Amino acid sequence: MNELLQPTTNPALGITIFVMGGLAGAVFYLPLKNVKKWAWESSWIFYALFALLIVPLTLALIKSPNTFSVLRAAPSQEIWYCYLCGAAWGFGGLTWGLMIRYLGVGLGLAIGCGLCSAAGTLIPKLITGKFGELLQPGAGLTSLVGVIVSVAGIALVGMAGMSKEKELPEEVKKKSVAEYNFGKGMMVALFSGLMSAALGFGLVGGGTIEKLALTTAPITPMAWKGMPVLVVALLGGGTVNILWCLFLNAKNKTFGDYTKADAPILGNIIWGAIAGAIWTCQFIAFKTGEPQMGNQGYVGWAVLMASSIMFSGLLGIILGEWKGTSGRTRGLLFAGLLVLLGSAFIAGYSGKLGQQAATPAPAITTPATGA
Fold first, then answer.
1. Predicted structure pTM score
2. Where are the domains of the chain?
3. Rounded-to-integer distance, Cα 193 and Cα 126, Å
4. pLDDT band for position 106 (cuts 50, 70, 90)
5. One-character DSSP codes across 308-340
6. In the chain, what's the furthest Cα-to-Cα distance?
7. What is the pLDDT of residues 240-293, one digit of tens each?
């Protein structure tokens, strides 16, 4: 058998990659704050072009040069599945920015990523009838505990957000989040978080595509086998995002933004591109970290989302979104962030247990005895 199909796993490295991806997911929105004199849709379309089309395809052609031949040989139903899951995520992703506008970076990403984490980790196991694997002693049960702990951390951060909502007067909240609206934000977060989980389904739904990447010349290295799947899934999301932005350009008569004399056009394009490139890094990390986890690769989604929440919470503190809150509220926030950090360690330990279980025990030989 091709040795590329038998990789050496490294759960610690896998978790580190997932965590770094979470950092990218937490900070990607910051460059868009530098866009000036453009409507939201005008900047978002450049974010979408780079995040969902240009960056993943360019990286795929570099690291997985057989991408096009793999996709030509792949089952059409699998390609459509990954594409449509990405499109479903696209509808959720459209409201991601709106969620941040209403709730702020810290609270918005915490709630949205939390819902996305739980749904994206558990639902695929339910759909494929493999939920029982999570109840198996050892790696399976430990990984389930990690998911539960991450949800507990998400709940604590959410409680901190609700406490913040009660404590701060409206004018103070809007100093850090200009359009702060907890009710609207929660409705948007619910929709966005659940729909966004569909991308997780698509990214783990291309098993045949990944096998073809490892066996079709020129063979893709194991660490990058998921790149063709990533291209297809993000293409689905890109289709929805770009068409929606063009629709809004027409509806709001904002096509003029792209030629507006008093707008920093080149700068706005660059900031949108940077935001898109940073955003894509989180899912590049997800697909390159998976092979390091062996059979426990599915925990990557929970670790990615938990890390994004953890870093977004810290970012919210830096940006002053929690300024003026009580010690109790900040205590809930810090407790939630610590629990989320702990969930990453538990996920890493589950990967180590899975690695040990997958390692065959050495053969035991007995000395020969005379007749």
1. 0.76
2. 18-356
3. 18
4. low
5. HHHHHHHHHHHTTTTTT--HHHHHHHHHHHHHH
6. 99
7. 999 999 999 999 999 999 999 999 999 999 999 999 999 999 989 988 988 887
pLDDT, tens digit, 9 for 90 and up, residues 198-229: 888 888 889 999 999 999 989 999 889 999 99
Supply angle C-alpha 17, 20, 25, rounded to 5: 125
Q: How many CB atoms lie within 10 A of CB 176?
A: 18
CB 241 within 8 A of CB 94: yes
What are the structure tokens assigned to 258, written together?
């792209």
How far is the C-alpha of 221 from the C-alpha of 223, rounded, in Å? 6
Q: Shortest CA distance to 276 belongs to which of 228, 318, 237, 320?
A: 237
As a residue count, the chain comes to 371
- Residue of 114 and 284 predicted with greater confidence: 284
Q: Exposed, middle or buried, 169 (CB in 10 Å: 0-12/13-18/19+)? A: exposed
Amino acid at the residue 256: G
Q: Which of 155, 148, 120, 150 lies closest to 301, judged by CA?
A: 120
